[in-house]
Structures
1.
Amino acid sequence: MRMNSHIQEKEQFKKLFQKERIDRFEDRFKILDVFLKSDTHLTSDELFEIFKKEGLGFSRDFVTETLELMRFYGFAQANRFQNGSPRYEPLILDRRHDHMVCAKCRKIIEFHSKALEDLQMEIAAAHGFHMLQHKMDIYGICSQCLKERSDLIPLARARAGETATIEKFLGGRRFEARMLSMGIRRGETVRIITNRGEGQLVAAVENRRFVIGSKMAFKILARPEAGPGKQRGSA
């Protein structure tokens, strides 16, 4: 079914781009062909590197321009995950889906749920709202990364949106006393608000927000909330 969709997309691409007299049609068609075969989420730089390895002399600007033309004419769509560079994927008209994005390994998982779409329509109707389209990106940690993760991690390794229970302090009594003065103690459940991997980390305990440096956050060991398929205390 997906192969048939690609054939249809190529035929429509030829008709539309030739009718609109888009320049360098043959080169742009090669870009479309590789793009559809990839069937994944690529940045313009990643697609450029594919052509560079194959010895095709497309410039970076030409690849980006072609992707934007494909987006404009409905053959590609662009997504920004976690405010990163635009990632392009084929826009197959009969294939709707949403995304789950792993905050650790950056894997992007596509999924489709009719029940979810029906619920969105129901909610929109309840508010007298006419929905034209929707976009859902769920951020979390994929099953593989959960399997590889230790039960206890430095708070500095927790991801934005994650909750974890503080279990241990590595900085001695003086460090623990300092944490207590900030309202951070063993057994508290912490929700990570912002963690960019370096610099300051912003978290919350109940309704209290606090900011600590990454060096301090590495001295706080926490137990992440158990994910699906992984029980607390498992290896």
2.
Amino acid sequence: MPTLYHAPQSRSSSLLVLVEEMGIGDQIDVVEVHVRRQDGSGGPDPRNPHPEGKVPYLVAGTDHLRERGAIVAYLTDRFPEAGLGRPVGHPQRGTYLSWLFYYQGVMEPVLVLDWAKVDHPAVRATFRDLETVFARLSEALTDQPYLLGKSYSAADLLLSSPFQWLPEALPEDPAIRAWVARCADRPAIAAVAAREAALV
């Protein structure tokens, strides 16, 4: 059984939402660990096998996965019957993977750098800027409710997740705001939030 290492109210919470959405809670062992927080609290946890003490981290047999995009791709491939991914051979497979990797390699770095007020021509040339990221999202969402069309997918879960913990980053674009609201209104998010609120 795969083991997911998770710290409540952290980036790994979105992986718990994914597990809830997919209905695979009985097939994933979740281990709660401590991590160092932005406010300086917490610290390394010897139970956490992540080489940098981060979360999420997934161990599945001899496979060790870190980074949310990789774990999302792995779980949706491993449990295709849940319908939140796009399996090999699906006509949207490339688009699905592109969104996952765009989040990991472009969108999250840009959001964090903007939040930290870090600006440099090299940063914009490498990762783009916030306006460009929002333009890509808006283009995808102008004529459809979700990134891949009419149905919600794990790509929507991942790419909408930062606006749950950084709502001030949400642009005024009506298509993006409506999409984030739809994603935030999912029962799985409410279920995970309620469980985590009970822990603090």
3.
Amino acid sequence: MAKTPSEPEGKICIAQIGAAHGVRGEVRIKLFSDDPNSLTQYGPLETADGKRHFKIVSARFAKTVFVCRIKGLTDRNEAEALNGVRLYVDREQLPELEEEEFYHSDLIGLDARLEDGTVLGSILAVHDFGAGDLLDIVPSRGKGLYVPFTREAVPHVSLDEGYVTVIPPEGLLDEADESERSLEGEGADFSAQPELLDGLKKD
């Protein structure tokens, strides 16, 4: 399956810099891995284009993010300028995954099929808003769907064949159909897509 243009080949996004913390250049970082050591064990993290590198020299957990100090960053204004920067490592540095473990980037672009083989759409992104991973599925037209990335809702993943089987929660497809009908004839733009946030999936 084709990669989303914003995804660099051969790299995995493991974290994203958020807001500045305090006045001494610390930043909040959201980690896309279950292993907190990921912030430091792979050496300096880099941007998607590989032009900038960031060495995390300290990190402490604070609710849902890590408050980190980056080497050479001592000013709040500089820290604020990094808000939204995604941090990558080379894929070859990461450990082999166990069965039923997937990198988010491997799921992006896969077809989402119903149990009868009907293609529902394709996976645009994998999000975590605090209650677990959600597959952001974009149909050929109409409103996108969020399907929980659980064994119950996604019983089968085939990277080789390029698809996942989904069993949407009851009523989800009905809500999407109703939303599409309400937009018909209003010149709705279905091309807008939310920002891609890829990371690591660990059961």
